[in-house]
Specification:
- It is a single chain.
- With 127 residues, the chain is mostly helical.
- 57% of the residues lie in helices and 0% in strands.
- The protein contains 5 helices and no strands.
- The chain is globular, with a radius of gyration of 15 Å.
Length: 127
């Protein structure tokens, strides 16, 4: 199955997911940011009025946060650093005890894991 995945298009979908997630968090309050706490979990301390969590946007932000927080912590760390903080791979890699090839493999696993959870994997088109 792994050979049937169009990784580049799947990465584009993951990037779009994070852009949408950031936008939804912003809509809940312009001072809100997606960040990891000291345990590597995405904080849900968003600056909102209490009623905004009852909205569709609030529920979607909660769902996305739950999906990300159930991932392996290393995968979540890499994805947040790369797609939310817009950190270069080399800078993220320097924070971790991995060589470049190992880091790239782990990042690919993280992308595919999230894409699978969100059902946004793109299959190769052989026609």
């Amino acid at each position: 199955m792994k050979n049937s995945i169009d990784y580049i298009k799947t990465v584009q979908n993951v990037k779009r997911f994070f852009e949408e997630f950031q936008y939804l968090v912003f809509l809940l309050g312009p001072r809100n940011k997606i960040k990891l706490n000291s345990e590597g979990i995405i904080e849900e301390k968003l600056v909102t009025d209490d009623s905004s969590y009852l909205t569709a946007i609030g529920k979607l932000v909660q769902l996305y946060t739950e999906i990300l927080n159930t991932m392996k912590s290393l995968h979540r760390f890499i994805l947040i650093k790369c797609y939310i903080d817009k950190q270069k791979d080399i800078a993220t890699m320097m924070e971790l005890p991995y060589e470049i090839a190992q880091f790239k493999r782990i990042k690919k696993q993280a992308v595919l894991s999230l894409a699978e959870d969100l059902e946004i994997i793109v299959e190769k088109n052989y026609f």
